Amino acid sequence: MSLTGPDADSFTKVGPGIGDIFSGMMMAFGILAALRLAEATGEGQFVDVAMYDAVLSLCERAVYLNDFNGTTPGPEGNNHPFLAPFGLFKAKDGAVAIGVVEDKFWKILADAMGGDALCSNAKFATRAARAEHKDALNSLVETWTKGHTKAELSAILGGKIPFGPLNSITDIVDDPHVLERSMLAQVYNPDSPKAPWTVASNPLRFSASKSPPLGSPPRLGQHNAQYLSPDPEKASRKFDPRTLRSAFGKFATGVTIVTTCQSDGAPRGITANSFTSVSLDPPILLICIAKSALSKSVFSECEHFGVNILRSTQQDVSTLFASKSAEKFDKADYEKSLQGTPVIKETLANFICRRQKSVDAGDHLVIFGEVIDFRSDDGSPLLYFNGDYCSID
Ligand SMILES: Cc1cc2nc3c(=O)[nH]c(=O)nc-3n(C[C@H](O)[C@H](O)[C@H](O)COP(=O)(O)O)c2cc1C
Fold first, then answer.
1. Which of 88, 92, 243, 367 has the most crowded Cβ, counting Cβ within 10 A?
2. What is the pLDDT of residue 232?
3. Is 171 a catalytic residue?
4. Which of 166, 185, 209 delimits the end of a domain?
Protein backbone atom coordinates (compact mmCIF):
# COMPACT_ATOMS: atom_id res chain seq x y z
CA MET A 1 0.00 0.00 0.00
CA SER A 2 2.96 2.36 0.39
CA LEU A 3 3.33 2.12 -3.40
CA THR A 4 -0.31 2.65 -4.36
CA GLY A 5 -2.36 5.84 -4.40
CA PRO A 6 -1.84 9.27 -5.97
CA ASP A 7 0.65 10.71 -3.44
CA ALA A 8 2.42 10.11 -0.13
CA ASP A 9 -0.56 11.45 1.85
CA SER A 10 -3.10 9.12 0.26
CA PHE A 11 -1.89 5.55 0.56
CA THR A 12 -4.48 3.42 -1.18
CA LYS A 13 -5.59 -0.17 -0.82
CA VAL A 14 -5.22 -2.38 -3.90
CA GLY A 15 -8.61 -3.33 -5.40
CA PRO A 16 -8.95 -7.14 -5.39
CA GLY A 17 -7.79 -9.32 -2.46
CA ILE A 18 -4.33 -9.77 -3.93
CA GLY A 19 -2.78 -11.00 -0.66
CA ASP A 20 -5.32 -13.83 -0.40
CA ILE A 21 -5.30 -14.82 -4.03
CA PHE A 22 -1.57 -14.57 -4.74
CA SER A 23 -0.61 -16.50 -1.58
CA GLY A 24 -3.05 -19.24 -2.62
CA MET A 25 -1.57 -19.33 -6.10
CA MET A 26 1.95 -19.62 -4.72
CA MET A 27 0.76 -22.47 -2.47
CA ALA A 28 -0.73 -24.21 -5.52
CA PHE A 29 2.67 -23.95 -7.27
CA GLY A 30 4.37 -25.30 -4.14
CA ILE A 31 1.97 -28.24 -3.84
CA LEU A 32 2.46 -29.18 -7.49
CA ALA A 33 6.25 -29.05 -7.11
CA ALA A 34 6.07 -31.15 -3.94
CA LEU A 35 3.80 -33.65 -5.72
CA ARG A 36 6.40 -34.06 -8.45
CA LEU A 37 9.04 -34.85 -5.83
CA ALA A 38 6.63 -37.22 -4.05
CA GLU A 39 5.98 -39.05 -7.31
CA ALA A 40 9.72 -39.31 -7.95
CA THR A 41 10.82 -40.30 -4.44
CA GLY A 42 7.71 -41.30 -2.49
CA GLU A 43 8.58 -38.67 0.12
CA GLY A 44 6.05 -36.06 1.25
CA GLN A 45 6.93 -32.71 2.81
CA PHE A 46 5.39 -29.66 4.50
CA VAL A 47 4.89 -26.75 2.08
CA ASP A 48 4.82 -23.35 3.76
CA VAL A 49 3.79 -19.97 2.25
CA ALA A 50 3.40 -16.92 4.50
CA MET A 51 1.07 -14.23 3.09
CA TYR A 52 3.57 -11.55 4.10
CA ASP A 53 6.30 -13.33 2.11
CA ALA A 54 4.10 -13.87 -0.94
CA VAL A 55 3.13 -10.18 -1.10
CA LEU A 56 6.74 -9.11 -0.47
CA SER A 57 7.81 -11.20 -3.48
CA LEU A 58 5.25 -9.26 -5.55
CA CYS A 59 6.78 -5.92 -4.55
CA GLU A 60 10.08 -6.79 -6.24
CA ARG A 61 10.49 -3.34 -7.82
CA ALA A 62 10.54 -1.56 -4.46
CA VAL A 63 13.24 -4.00 -3.28
CA TYR A 64 15.63 -3.47 -6.18
CA LEU A 65 15.01 0.29 -6.41
CA ASN A 66 15.92 0.56 -2.75
CA ASP A 67 18.99 -1.61 -3.28
CA PHE A 68 20.23 -0.07 -6.54
CA ASN A 69 19.32 3.59 -5.99
CA GLY A 70 19.04 3.81 -2.22
CA THR A 71 15.55 5.32 -2.66
CA THR A 72 12.34 4.57 -0.79
CA PRO A 73 9.73 4.37 -3.55
CA GLY A 74 6.41 5.99 -2.64
CA PRO A 75 2.95 5.94 -4.24
CA GLU A 76 3.24 5.94 -8.01
CA GLY A 77 -0.28 7.17 -8.76
CA ASN A 78 -1.49 5.87 -12.05
CA ASN A 79 1.83 6.33 -13.80
CA HIS A 80 5.14 4.52 -13.96
CA PRO A 81 8.24 5.69 -12.09
CA PHE A 82 10.48 5.63 -15.17
CA LEU A 83 8.33 4.98 -18.24
CA ALA A 84 6.12 7.50 -20.07
CA PRO A 85 3.47 7.67 -21.28
CA PHE A 86 2.44 4.83 -19.01
CA GLY A 87 -0.65 4.54 -16.85
CA LEU A 88 -4.29 5.60 -16.87
CA PHE A 89 -5.52 8.45 -19.06
CA LYS A 90 -8.99 9.98 -19.01
CA ALA A 91 -11.29 9.37 -21.98
CA LYS A 92 -14.64 10.99 -22.84
CA ASP A 93 -16.52 8.20 -21.08
CA GLY A 94 -14.03 6.81 -18.55
CA ALA A 95 -10.34 6.03 -18.84
CA VAL A 96 -7.88 3.92 -20.79
CA ALA A 97 -4.56 2.32 -19.85
CA ILE A 98 -1.56 2.94 -22.07
CA GLY A 99 1.88 1.43 -21.53
CA VAL A 100 4.58 2.73 -23.85
CA VAL A 101 7.54 0.56 -22.99
CA GLU A 102 9.45 0.86 -26.24
CA ASP A 103 10.21 3.56 -28.83
CA LYS A 104 8.27 1.69 -31.52
CA PHE A 105 5.07 1.98 -29.42
CA TRP A 106 5.71 5.69 -28.91
CA LYS A 107 5.96 6.17 -32.69
CA ILE A 108 2.58 4.47 -33.22
CA LEU A 109 0.94 6.55 -30.47
CA ALA A 110 2.54 9.83 -31.59
CA ASP A 111 1.44 9.12 -35.14
CA ALA A 112 -2.15 8.56 -33.99
CA MET A 113 -2.05 11.69 -31.83
CA GLY A 114 -0.68 14.23 -34.19
CA GLY A 115 1.73 12.99 -36.74
CA ASP A 116 5.19 14.08 -37.78
CA ALA A 117 5.86 16.99 -35.42
CA LEU A 118 5.27 14.86 -32.36
CA CYS A 119 7.08 11.86 -33.81
CA SER A 120 10.21 13.87 -34.46
CA ASN A 121 10.13 15.88 -31.22
CA ALA A 122 13.52 15.13 -29.58
CA LYS A 123 12.05 15.70 -26.10
CA PHE A 124 10.10 12.43 -26.52
CA ALA A 125 12.32 10.48 -28.91
CA THR A 126 13.89 8.02 -26.46
CA ARG A 127 12.77 6.24 -23.35
CA ALA A 128 15.13 8.36 -21.22
CA ALA A 129 13.94 11.61 -22.85
CA ARG A 130 10.30 10.67 -22.33
CA ALA A 131 11.00 9.86 -18.67
CA GLU A 132 12.67 13.26 -18.24
CA HIS A 133 9.62 15.04 -19.70
CA LYS A 134 7.15 12.66 -18.14
CA ASP A 135 4.67 15.19 -16.76
CA ALA A 136 4.48 17.26 -19.94
CA LEU A 137 4.11 14.12 -22.04
CA ASN A 138 1.43 12.54 -19.86
CA SER A 139 -0.70 15.69 -19.95
CA LEU A 140 -0.24 15.91 -23.74
CA VAL A 141 -1.45 12.34 -24.12
CA GLU A 142 -4.39 12.94 -21.77
CA THR A 143 -5.49 16.02 -23.67
CA TRP A 144 -5.73 13.77 -26.71
CA THR A 145 -7.40 10.76 -25.02
CA LYS A 146 -10.00 13.04 -23.38
CA GLY A 147 -11.28 13.94 -26.84
CA HIS A 148 -12.21 10.31 -27.61
CA THR A 149 -14.42 7.60 -26.17
CA LYS A 150 -12.97 4.33 -24.90
CA ALA A 151 -14.38 2.55 -27.97
CA GLU A 152 -12.78 5.07 -30.34
CA LEU A 153 -9.42 4.74 -28.58
CA SER A 154 -9.73 0.95 -28.65
CA ALA A 155 -10.27 1.10 -32.40
CA ILE A 156 -7.23 3.38 -32.89
CA LEU A 157 -4.75 1.72 -30.49
CA GLY A 158 -6.07 -1.74 -29.61
CA GLY A 159 -3.70 -4.51 -30.63
CA LYS A 160 -1.05 -2.01 -31.77
CA ILE A 161 0.47 -0.87 -28.49
CA PRO A 162 0.02 -2.03 -24.89
CA PHE A 163 -3.47 -0.60 -24.38
CA GLY A 164 -6.80 -1.39 -22.74
CA PRO A 165 -9.99 0.43 -21.78
CA LEU A 166 -10.69 0.73 -18.04
CA ASN A 167 -13.53 -1.76 -17.65
CA SER A 168 -16.23 -1.84 -15.01
CA ILE A 169 -17.88 -5.17 -14.26
CA THR A 170 -20.79 -4.23 -16.56
CA ASP A 171 -18.31 -3.57 -19.40
CA ILE A 172 -16.78 -7.00 -18.68
CA VAL A 173 -20.14 -8.78 -18.75
CA ASP A 174 -20.73 -7.34 -22.26
CA ASP A 175 -17.15 -7.87 -23.49
CA PRO A 176 -17.05 -10.23 -26.54
CA HIS A 177 -13.60 -11.41 -25.44
CA VAL A 178 -15.05 -12.64 -22.14
CA LEU A 179 -17.82 -14.46 -24.01
CA GLU A 180 -15.36 -16.03 -26.48
CA ARG A 181 -13.12 -17.27 -23.65
CA SER A 182 -16.08 -18.42 -21.48
CA MET A 183 -14.59 -16.41 -18.64
CA LEU A 184 -17.92 -16.02 -16.84
CA ALA A 185 -19.52 -19.28 -15.80
CA GLN A 186 -22.78 -20.20 -14.13
CA VAL A 187 -22.68 -22.62 -11.22
CA TYR A 188 -25.47 -24.46 -9.49
CA ASN A 189 -27.00 -22.63 -6.55
CA PRO A 190 -28.10 -25.31 -4.06
CA ASP A 191 -30.37 -22.80 -2.25
CA SER A 192 -32.16 -21.72 -5.37
CA PRO A 193 -31.57 -24.07 -8.31
CA LYS A 194 -33.44 -21.79 -10.71
CA ALA A 195 -31.12 -18.86 -9.95
CA PRO A 196 -27.57 -20.06 -10.71
CA TRP A 197 -24.59 -17.98 -9.57
CA THR A 198 -22.31 -16.24 -12.07
CA VAL A 199 -18.62 -16.56 -11.17
CA ALA A 200 -15.28 -15.86 -12.85
CA SER A 201 -14.05 -19.03 -14.59
CA ASN A 202 -10.68 -20.67 -14.19
CA PRO A 203 -8.45 -18.77 -16.67
CA LEU A 204 -6.25 -21.84 -17.37
CA ARG A 205 -6.84 -23.48 -20.73
CA PHE A 206 -5.16 -26.79 -21.65
CA SER A 207 -4.79 -27.93 -25.24
CA ALA A 208 -5.03 -31.60 -24.23
CA SER A 209 -8.33 -31.41 -22.35
CA LYS A 210 -11.42 -29.27 -22.04
CA SER A 211 -11.97 -27.37 -18.83
CA PRO A 212 -14.47 -29.32 -16.71
CA PRO A 213 -17.66 -27.48 -15.72
CA LEU A 214 -17.36 -25.58 -12.44
CA GLY A 215 -19.17 -27.06 -9.45
CA SER A 216 -20.78 -25.05 -6.67
CA PRO A 217 -18.69 -24.72 -3.49
CA PRO A 218 -19.27 -27.45 -0.89
CA ARG A 219 -21.31 -26.65 2.20
CA LEU A 220 -19.42 -26.53 5.48
CA GLY A 221 -18.52 -30.11 6.39
CA GLN A 222 -20.14 -31.58 3.26
CA HIS A 223 -17.14 -33.85 2.57
CA ASN A 224 -16.19 -34.69 6.15
CA ALA A 225 -17.53 -38.22 5.88
CA GLN A 226 -15.53 -38.80 2.70
CA TYR A 227 -12.21 -37.40 3.91
CA LEU A 228 -12.16 -37.39 7.72
CA SER A 229 -14.14 -40.40 8.97
CA PRO A 230 -12.49 -43.80 9.02
CA ASP A 231 -13.18 -45.64 5.77
CA PRO A 232 -15.53 -48.51 6.79
CA GLU A 233 -14.56 -50.52 3.73
CA LYS A 234 -10.86 -50.14 4.58
CA ALA A 235 -11.46 -51.10 8.21
CA SER A 236 -13.06 -54.40 7.15
CA ARG A 237 -10.07 -55.10 4.88
CA LYS A 238 -7.79 -56.25 7.71
CA PHE A 239 -5.77 -59.06 6.24
CA ASP A 240 -3.07 -60.97 8.00
CA PRO A 241 0.04 -59.88 6.05
CA ARG A 242 1.58 -63.34 6.23
CA THR A 243 -1.53 -64.97 4.73
CA LEU A 244 -1.62 -62.31 2.03
CA ARG A 245 2.10 -62.75 1.29
CA SER A 246 1.55 -66.49 1.02
CA ALA A 247 -1.37 -65.93 -1.40
CA PHE A 248 0.77 -63.58 -3.52
CA GLY A 249 3.50 -66.25 -3.42
CA LYS A 250 1.26 -68.64 -5.37
CA PHE A 251 2.32 -66.69 -8.43
CA ALA A 252 5.57 -68.21 -9.71
CA THR A 253 8.13 -65.64 -10.78
CA GLY A 254 11.69 -65.39 -11.95
CA VAL A 255 14.30 -63.72 -9.75
CA THR A 256 16.25 -60.59 -10.64
CA ILE A 257 18.98 -58.46 -9.16
CA VAL A 258 18.05 -54.80 -9.57
CA THR A 259 21.14 -52.60 -9.58
CA THR A 260 22.06 -48.95 -9.67
CA CYS A 261 24.85 -46.60 -8.75
CA GLN A 262 24.65 -44.00 -5.99
CA SER A 263 25.93 -40.44 -6.47
CA ASP A 264 29.43 -41.24 -5.12
CA GLY A 265 29.72 -44.08 -7.65
CA ALA A 266 29.16 -46.93 -5.16
CA PRO A 267 27.13 -49.82 -6.66
CA ARG A 268 23.82 -50.78 -5.01
CA GLY A 269 21.63 -53.80 -5.66
CA ILE A 270 18.82 -55.90 -4.28
CA THR A 271 17.13 -59.18 -5.11
CA ALA A 272 13.67 -58.51 -6.55
CA ASN A 273 11.00 -60.72 -8.08
CA SER A 274 8.60 -57.82 -8.70
CA PHE A 275 9.85 -57.38 -12.27
CA THR A 276 7.16 -56.82 -14.94
CA SER A 277 7.57 -56.12 -18.62
CA VAL A 278 5.15 -53.26 -19.27
CA SER A 279 5.46 -52.06 -22.87
CA LEU A 280 7.25 -53.15 -26.03
CA ASP A 281 6.98 -49.86 -27.92
CA PRO A 282 8.26 -47.81 -26.21
CA PRO A 283 10.17 -50.45 -24.23
CA ILE A 284 9.21 -50.05 -20.58
CA LEU A 285 9.57 -52.29 -17.53
CA LEU A 286 8.86 -51.86 -13.85
CA ILE A 287 10.16 -53.05 -10.53
CA CYS A 288 8.83 -52.53 -7.01
CA ILE A 289 11.19 -51.48 -4.23
CA ALA A 290 10.11 -51.85 -0.61
CA LYS A 291 10.15 -48.57 1.32
CA SER A 292 11.98 -50.51 4.04
CA ALA A 293 14.91 -51.32 1.70
CA LEU A 294 18.11 -49.46 2.61
CA SER A 295 18.66 -48.67 -1.06
CA LYS A 296 15.11 -47.29 -1.62
CA SER A 297 16.14 -43.64 -1.82
CA VAL A 298 19.03 -44.44 -4.19
CA PHE A 299 16.64 -46.25 -6.55
CA SER A 300 13.95 -43.57 -6.29
CA GLU A 301 16.39 -40.85 -7.38
CA CYS A 302 18.75 -42.68 -9.73
CA GLU A 303 19.06 -41.77 -13.38
CA HIS A 304 19.65 -45.33 -14.59
CA PHE A 305 19.09 -48.76 -13.15
CA GLY A 306 19.65 -52.32 -14.32
CA VAL A 307 17.60 -55.52 -14.08
CA ASN A 308 19.53 -58.80 -14.16
CA ILE A 309 17.52 -62.02 -14.59
CA LEU A 310 19.18 -64.89 -12.72
CA ARG A 311 19.87 -68.40 -13.99
CA SER A 312 18.80 -71.51 -12.08
CA THR A 313 22.46 -71.85 -10.96
CA GLN A 314 22.56 -68.40 -9.33
CA GLN A 315 20.59 -68.92 -6.11
CA ASP A 316 23.69 -67.86 -4.12
CA VAL A 317 23.65 -64.49 -5.97
CA SER A 318 19.99 -64.04 -5.02
CA THR A 319 20.75 -64.81 -1.37
CA LEU A 320 23.68 -62.38 -1.39
CA PHE A 321 21.60 -59.50 -2.76
CA ALA A 322 18.63 -60.29 -0.50
CA SER A 323 20.90 -59.45 2.45
CA LYS A 324 21.48 -56.03 4.01
CA SER A 325 25.25 -56.40 3.71
CA ALA A 326 27.20 -53.30 2.72
CA GLU A 327 29.70 -55.53 0.89
CA LYS A 328 27.32 -57.25 -1.53
CA PHE A 329 29.30 -56.15 -4.55
CA ASP A 330 32.65 -57.23 -3.07
CA LYS A 331 31.42 -60.79 -3.40
CA ALA A 332 29.60 -60.38 -6.72
CA ASP A 333 30.87 -60.88 -10.24
CA TYR A 334 29.85 -57.74 -12.17
CA GLU A 335 30.96 -55.07 -14.60
CA LYS A 336 29.70 -51.54 -15.21
CA SER A 337 27.60 -50.44 -18.19
CA LEU A 338 28.34 -47.23 -20.14
CA GLN A 339 25.94 -45.44 -17.80
CA GLY A 340 27.79 -46.77 -14.73
CA THR A 341 25.04 -49.27 -13.85
CA PRO A 342 26.35 -52.55 -12.38
CA VAL A 343 25.64 -55.51 -14.67
CA ILE A 344 25.75 -58.92 -12.97
CA LYS A 345 27.75 -61.42 -15.05
CA GLU A 346 26.54 -64.82 -16.31
CA THR A 347 22.87 -63.95 -15.98
CA LEU A 348 20.07 -65.01 -18.34
CA ALA A 349 19.30 -61.44 -19.42
CA ASN A 350 20.19 -57.86 -18.46
CA PHE A 351 18.29 -54.64 -19.07
CA ILE A 352 19.73 -51.15 -18.67
CA CYS A 353 16.98 -48.60 -18.08
CA ARG A 354 16.59 -44.85 -17.82
CA ARG A 355 14.36 -44.25 -14.81
CA GLN A 356 11.12 -42.65 -16.00
CA LYS A 357 9.20 -42.14 -12.77
CA SER A 358 8.60 -43.61 -9.34
CA VAL A 359 5.03 -44.07 -8.17
CA ASP A 360 4.15 -44.30 -4.51
CA ALA A 361 2.19 -47.54 -3.88
CA GLY A 362 1.53 -48.50 -0.25
CA ASP A 363 4.67 -49.97 1.33
CA HIS A 364 6.50 -50.07 -2.03
CA LEU A 365 7.60 -47.69 -4.75
CA VAL A 366 6.85 -48.74 -8.31
CA ILE A 367 9.78 -47.66 -10.47
CA PHE A 368 9.28 -47.46 -14.22
CA GLY A 369 12.26 -47.60 -16.55
CA GLU A 370 12.67 -47.14 -20.28
CA VAL A 371 14.93 -49.90 -21.61
CA ILE A 372 17.91 -48.31 -23.37
CA ASP A 373 20.00 -51.47 -23.74
CA PHE A 374 19.60 -55.18 -23.12
CA ARG A 375 21.04 -58.61 -23.83
CA SER A 376 19.67 -62.11 -23.35
CA ASP A 377 21.03 -65.64 -23.44
CA ASP A 378 19.70 -69.19 -23.55
CA GLY A 379 19.34 -71.13 -20.35
CA SER A 380 17.13 -72.02 -17.48
CA PRO A 381 15.83 -69.40 -15.02
CA LEU A 382 15.91 -69.33 -11.25
CA LEU A 383 12.26 -69.40 -10.08
CA TYR A 384 10.56 -68.31 -6.88
CA PHE A 385 7.30 -69.97 -5.86
CA ASN A 386 5.46 -70.37 -2.59
CA GLY A 387 8.24 -68.57 -0.70
CA ASP A 388 10.99 -70.81 -2.00
CA TYR A 389 13.42 -71.14 -4.88
CA CYS A 390 12.81 -73.72 -7.57
CA SER A 391 13.58 -74.33 -11.21
CA ILE A 392 11.79 -75.71 -14.25
CA ASP A 393 14.31 -78.53 -14.74
C1 LIG B 1 13.16 -63.96 -4.00
C2 LIG B 1 13.17 -62.59 -3.43
C3 LIG B 1 12.46 -61.57 -4.04
C4 LIG B 1 12.45 -60.27 -3.54
N5 LIG B 1 11.77 -59.29 -4.20
C6 LIG B 1 11.82 -58.03 -3.74
C7 LIG B 1 11.19 -56.98 -4.46
O8 LIG B 1 10.58 -57.19 -5.50
N9 LIG B 1 11.29 -55.73 -3.97
C10 LIG B 1 11.95 -55.45 -2.82
O11 LIG B 1 12.02 -54.27 -2.42
N12 LIG B 1 12.55 -56.41 -2.10
C13 LIG B 1 12.52 -57.69 -2.54
N14 LIG B 1 13.15 -58.67 -1.87
C15 LIG B 1 13.81 -58.34 -0.59
C16 LIG B 1 15.12 -57.57 -0.80
O17 LIG B 1 15.99 -58.27 -1.66
C18 LIG B 1 15.80 -57.38 0.57
O19 LIG B 1 14.93 -56.68 1.43
C20 LIG B 1 17.15 -56.67 0.52
O21 LIG B 1 17.76 -56.84 1.76
C22 LIG B 1 17.05 -55.19 0.26
O23 LIG B 1 18.36 -54.67 0.25
P24 LIG B 1 18.78 -53.24 0.85
O25 LIG B 1 18.08 -53.08 2.18
O26 LIG B 1 20.26 -53.27 0.93
O27 LIG B 1 18.31 -52.22 -0.11
C28 LIG B 1 13.17 -60.00 -2.34
C29 LIG B 1 13.89 -61.00 -1.72
C30 LIG B 1 13.88 -62.28 -2.25
C31 LIG B 1 14.66 -63.38 -1.56
1. 367
2. 59
3. no
4. 166
Q: What is the DSSP letter of 311?
A: B
Lining ligand 1 with CB less than 6 A are: 255, 270-274, 288-290, 293-295, 318, 322-324, 384
Distance (Å, whole) CA 102 – CA 124: 12
Q: Which atom of ligand 1 approaches the CA of 321 most closely?
A: 17
Given the CA of residue 318, which atom of ligand 1 is nearest to it?
31
Mean pLDDT of the region 101-118: 90
pLDDT band at 78 (very low <50, low <70, confident <90, very high): confident
Is 255 contained in some domain? yes
pLDDT at residue 234 tops 80:
no
Q: How far is CA 157 from CA 41, 125, 150, 175, 365, in A?
A: 52, 19, 10, 17, 57
Q: How confident is the model at residue 233 (pLDDT cuts 50, 70, 90)?
A: low
Do both 125 and 47 map to the same domain? no
Helix axes 103-113, 150-157, angle to 10 degrees: 130
Note whether 260 and 332 are same-domain residues.
yes
CA distances from 169 to 25, 184, 191, 381 (A): 23, 11, 25, 73
Is residue 254 located within the same domain as residue 351? yes
CA 305, CA 356: separation in Å to the nearest integer? Answer: 10
The model carries a pTM of 0.53
- Total residue count of the chain as it appears in this document: 393
